[in-house]
Amino acid sequence: MVSGCGLSRKTNRKTNSTFLYFWYYKDGKKSEKYLGREDDKEANLKGAREMLAFYRKKDKELHIIMSKLELQITSSIPRKSSITSTYPSITEKKPNYLPDFED
């Protein structure tokens, strides 16, 4: 599973300008989204918002996966019943050929 995101900077050598991009992985492929010039405060703020939204979504997905795994584990653990049976267990039964008391 490939996951992650971040900000990258690319410089155009002809114009000597640096641009900011938000990169992330979607379906195992890296994608990029143009944010603006690197020196633009709004572009940097937009990048921080994009990363926060990405990690919040991943956090939700991760907690769903964790909940399913916890449920799978707890449902497979045998538990002792809190309801007492009216019949004794097999190990508590006396064989029918022994008397109830000894002389």
List keywords for this structure.
103 residues; three-stranded antiparallel sheet; rod-shaped
Description:
This protein is an alpha+beta fold and 103 residues long. It has a domain at 1-61. It contains 1 helix and 3 strands; from the N terminus they run E-E-E-H. It has a 3-stranded antiparallel beta sheet, covered by helices on one side. Strand 2 (17-26) and strand 3 (29-37) form a beta hairpin. The radius of gyration is 32 Å and the shape is rod-shaped. It starts with a strand and ends in a 27-residue tail after the last helix.
What would you call the shape? rod-shaped
Order of helices and strands: EEEH
- The overall pLDDT average reads 84
Radius of gyration: 32 Å
> Which residue ranges are poorly predicted, with pLDDT under 50 across at least 5 consecutive positions?
none
Helicity range: 25-40%
In total, the number of strands is 3
What kind of sheet is the major sheet?
3 strands, antiparallel
Q: How many alpha or pi helices?
A: 1
Strand content: 25-35%
Assembly type: single chain
Strand order of the largest sheet: 1-2-3
| Secondary structural class | alpha+beta
Q: What distance lies between the first and last C-alpha atoms, to the nearest angstrom? A: 74 Å
Short description:
The chain is an alpha+beta fold and 103 residues long. It contains 1 helix and 3 strands, in the order E-E-E-H. The chain has a 3-stranded antiparallel beta sheet with strand order 1-2-3, with helices on one face.
SSE topology:
Elements: E1 5-12, E2 17-26, E3 29-37, H1 41-76
Antiparallel strand pairs: 1-2, 2-3
